[in-house]
Amino acid sequence: MRVYELGEGTPEVAVVGTIHGDEPCGVRAIERLVAEDPDVERPVKLIVANEEALDAGVRYLDEDLNRAFPGDPDADSHERRLAHALQRELHDCTVLSLHSTQSYGDPFALVDTVDAVSRAICPHLPVDVVVETERFTEGRLIEHPHTIEVECGFQGSEEAAENAYWLTRAFLSATSALPALAADDPVDAGDREDVAVFRLLEPIPKGPADEYGVFATNFVRVEEGERFAAIDGEPLYADESFYPVLLSPYGYRDVFGYAADTVGTLN
User: Which residues form the Succinylglutamate desuccinylase/Aspartoacylase catalytic domain (predicted)?
Assistant: First the structure.
């Protein structure tokens, strides 16, 4: 784990990248910001979490770090020890955790539940969607108080790295660590319209197969009876209407993604 600190004093704001070693957008955003050495208005902590997995070019070494919290300092698993150390680093911090996905190209945010912190911050991020994940947070960093995850774009893409940087800048502006983004910046979070809030309802399972397909678009309503995916060419039809979230053919081993519903907006 690599930790940078900007400013003087004890940081109460933190940005975490590389929870997964195969998602390099976070470390690229952090290193870009560190190289710029901005004058911060409150101290900030920037953390490259799973350096070992990043160096190995794999998602994790022993187990998924984002299923290993709160961790154990005496565990045999590298990620479980790291989870414990990372959680200690983040104590009393408001946190942005940078991720990327195989399912969706535009940035969106995920929270445990919408609370005062996410209501204050998310409308100032360059996202159109916030997803409540409360039923599916066991072992994830998002269970840490005052933590917002963001999916920055497609895994390994230049767009995800660029989005991660501007999401970080917007988060630090929203938490008063950096000045507000200017109107001529590539991302002007101040011009966001209402941010839609979705709530995860249940995973969409997929059985063993040689080939998977997805026909639905994330965050676009799938109607009852509509074809939304396929397993070895056999179509799957919706038993009832739902909104797909994190839906992709190969992003997860045992599920296509999640069914969700809309629950309101943030503005």
Answer: 10-102
